[in-house]
Structures are given as structure tokens and as C-alpha cells.
Amino acid sequence: MKDVAIIMGSISDLSTMQSTIDTLKELKVTYSVHVISAHRMPQEMINFGKTAAYSGYKVIIAGAGGAAHLPGMVAATTTLPVIGVPVESKALKGMDSLLSIVQMPAGVPVATMAIGKAGAANAALMATRICALSNSKYLETLTDYKQAMKKKSIESGKQFE
């Protein structure tokens, strides 16, 4: 059983969502990856959302570009927390994706991250924090991750001493 489901509307979103995968790997969080298009696979998307909690997932991370309906539509079908990652698009640099994900109507919440790879990495960190509420192992990996970031920052500043 996996704790986090990573879904994306198209395989082309993988270049962004790889940051989510890499961060979850580093944090030792269990996950699975799925390509589910809100526009081209609506029934599969609905079925995934309806069954995600029963499948053992704790959080869904949904990456989408362009119209970016995937995070909101999945949130409409599940009671699990959904974290949206706006994928940068060529036409509007991801602003269209960001606005599509963040402007959800009351009653259909989607936690929305920044556009692109930083947002994808932060989605993994947020999902881990959510999962850590019921899994102390993840608290330890988060603590180690934060310490490693601190050490890296300290080391990077030593070049100026």
C-alpha cells in the first residue's frame, strides 16, 4: 500500500513532476505514479478519485498544465487532501495552470503549490508532512531533510569566509 498518489494529466508533465518523485524518494515516502487526463480519460479520473482512499492513499498530488482541471476534478471526487502542482506551459508560462488550480469554489479545496519544479518538490514535502501526522517514521525523515538543507546552506556560505 502506498501513502501518496502522484497523478499527472500527461506524460509531458513528468519533467516537472520528477521533482515530486525525487523528493518523495529522498524522504522514503511510499508513492505510485499515474497518468490520468481529466479531459481524455474522465471516467478513469473519476474512478481513481472515488477509490483512492479505499486503496490506502493518504494524499494525492496532481500535476497539470494548461487548463489544469485535474487537481480540482480529482478533489471533487475524493475526501483525501489534494495538492495541485501547476506545470509551466509554453503559452502563458504556467500562470494559466496556477489560476486554474488555485481558484477553486468553496467546498472543493486544493492546496496549491508554486509553478514548476519548486512547487513539485514542495508538494512532496507537504504530502510528507500530512502523512507524518500518522507515521512517525516520516517525522524523522523530515527532520533529517531539514538538517541536510541547513548544512548545505552553511557549507555554501563558507566560500565567502
How are the secondary structure elements laid out?
Elements: E1 4-8, H1 14-26, E2 31-35, H2 42-51, E3 59-64, H3 70-77, E4 82-86, H4 95-102, E5 111-112, H5 117-132, H6 136-157
Parallel strand pairs: 1-2, 1-3, 3-4, 4-5
Helix pairs in contact: 1-5, 2-3, 5-6
**Low-confidence runs (pLDDT<50, min 5 residues)?**
none
Strand content: 5-15%
Number of strands: 5
Provide the gyration radius in Å.
Answer: 16 Å
Overall structural domain count: 1
The end-to-end distance, rounded to whole angstroms, is 48 Å
Task: Decide which structural class fits the backbone.
Answer: alpha/beta
H/E element sequence: EHEHEHEHEHH
- Biggest β-sheet description: 5 strands, parallel
Written description of the protein model:
The chain has 161 residues and is of the alpha/beta class. The chain has a single domain (4-160), classed as Rossmann fold, CATH 3.40.50.1970. 48% of the residues lie in helices and 14% in strands. The protein has 6 helices and 5 strands; from the N terminus they run βαβαβαβαβαα. A 5-stranded parallel beta sheet has the order 2-1-3-4-5, with helices on both faces. Strand 4, helix 4 (95-102) and strand 5 (111-112) form a beta-alpha-beta unit. Helix 2 (42-51) packs across helix 3 (70-77). The protein is globular, with a radius of gyration of 16 Å. It starts with a strand and ends with a helix. The model has no long low-confidence stretch (mean pLDDT 95).
